[in-house]
## 1
Amino acid sequence: MRIEHVAIYVDDLEAARSFFENYFGAQANNLYHNPKKGFKSYFLSFDDGARLEIITKVDISHEKLAQDHLGFIHLAFSVGSKEKVDELTKRLQGDGYPVLSGPRTTGDGYYESCILGVEGNQIEITI
């Protein structure tokens, strides 16, 4: 068994698509639009077969959750090396995305950083 995909709601669908394409090498499918439901989405595919669905709806709630809350917390991307973690973190920070932690080696041995990405989603970058 495997997780087929994960989905997140976003306000600016095109900005979210561009973020994941630009920084994480995602490939978007064609836009799906259901005008009757005010629903639009892309499936973003990554090199290893993982997929992320980004969705927007006309009636989406804009209520923000606390940084530490129950439920899904972050998306983690493995970039292959410490150097790549450092490079991507620096690039994202230079482009205005806040670094929440790292790059660092955690107590359980992971080398990672965590940034606040598009629309406030936490993105973990690891080896």
## 2
Amino acid sequence: MIPSIPQKIKLLDANILKIIAVVTMLIDHTALAILMNRILLPAAPISRGTGLYRLYMLYKVLRGVGRTAFPIFCFMLAEGFYHTKDRQKYALRLLIAAIVSEVPFDLAFYDTPMYTGYQNVCFTLLLGFLLLWEWEYFKNKWYIQVVLGLLLGFTAWFFKTDYSWHGVLLIFIFYLLHDFRIPQLICGAISMLWEWPSVFSFILLLFYNGKKGHQLKYFFYIFYPAHLFLLWILYVCL
């Protein structure tokens, strides 16, 4: 028998989890865009025992904290897939967010408005959402499900979206084990061991109570490109 999570410890609603994800994402991106790209890289190589080395260690800690964000976003996406009344509009929002965010993403991390070597995480979330959608649409045709699923994972890998096929797989795990929370989180954590600091986020997800909380529906779509653009402005000003 699969153990269940006691109701009394389920203290976090969807909105609180999203806020945690947004804050840790901001920490992560600030560390990369400012600490690494603007301060540490221009000063390389960095010697042990120096102030820059201590700053580098701070950078590593902040990036580790930032790994919390992505699994939470994937988890919320899988939950959203189950509860949304209009999957077409949901997918369209993700597509628009991905397109709008690409230039700020490239500016923040590569200091150029067009960098084709790596794509923002909204594309990964979109591909994951499409995988869940096709999996349900072709539920009686497993061979189509598998082929399309592999194709979507390959697309993430080929176009080098953030977290690549690993992210698409994580979304699928959250979906496939939706009704079995503990196995869902264990399998999800195992799939992310290659990015081991992210495992902490799966502990947070144990406390999810299934409620929406106070809704800030479009804030998260706006925040992603906006914070990237502001980080680039800060990068330029420094």
## 3
Amino acid sequence: MTDDSPVTAESPESPVHTTGTDHITVWGSNAEDTIAYYRDLLGMSLVLRQPNLDDPSQTHLFFDTGDGTILTVFVSDDRDSNARPLRTQTGGVHHLCFSLVPDRFEAVADALETAGYRYNVFDRGIFLSLYTRDPNGLTIELTVEKFDFPDDRTGEVLATAQRIREEDGAEYAETEHLAAALDELGIEAEAHDLPDAGSGVGGIR
């Protein structure tokens, strides 16, 4: 069955309207490995540490992902890290995605390799993404936008690119659809100078 729900940046008629993402919480292993990855490697500030209020035997770590959106991790010193890929069930978290400064993309890839983390890079059409895994096998996507445009216009730009993609008969949104959407909306946006990468499907292997 095909879902033909409309794609639009307009707010739906619903009883609840969220105002943004406050935080995301994941299960972690121990504090040492978690802090070494998210703070010392990915550069997220550790802004709060306290007991897990639902289970005080565990610690609750709060990281600022860079724009005030918080990633929190439940950790316990008796849990070892396990880097094997997670097999996520329906309702589980497939991956977390964080944004990067475009001109730091290649330096980030080098830092991950130096730290011993494998990664793959893919051109996703509307952005360029690097896929890696955290110490517990959770897929982490690090992405850069192809064009510099205001964050508060993102939904509008993507919905317009979606319409253009469908009119073009393309399988997925590509750079040309994004550029056309920006032009249609009258948004002046500079294209970032990014490395070449293979397109299509795939993730961390």
